[in-house]
Amino acid sequence: MNHEQIVQRFERFLKTRSLKLTAQRRKIFDRAFGTHEHFSAETLYGWLKDEPGENVSRATVYRTLALLLDGGFVEALDAGRGELVYEHVLGHAHHDHMVCLECGKIEEFHDERIEELQLEACKKKGFQLVSHDLRLRGYCRGCAKKRGTRSASAT
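Below the sequence we write its predicted structure tokens.
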């Protein structure tokens, strides 16, 4: 799915809420989909504030992120830093996250064995899976080294 198709899908979603794709919403949408980083609402607001053109209010950023989340265009991740971080998900393969409790670094990963085990567990319980996410919390290699502990991958 290319960027313009995703924009059209967002526009259709907004119409179901009797909303329009305003210039500010489009600017927020484009910036959110223009990065491969995980970002907080405040980070997104800062990026937009630094860009030339029409200003976007902090409230509009938060409201638009809520719409993007409700419509399944972005997902939120509680990285344990006191604020949610977001990432766009349309057009990207499913993945899980490792979150460093020290520096906040987020590593994405995918392991087919884990996916199969989750499906197997659902099947055993008669659970109809709709979606899932997996977050591993711990210390990245650099922070584990500073702490004097070994990461699981180092053993």
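The helical segments are 3-16, 23-33, 41-50, 58-70, 112-125, 141-147.
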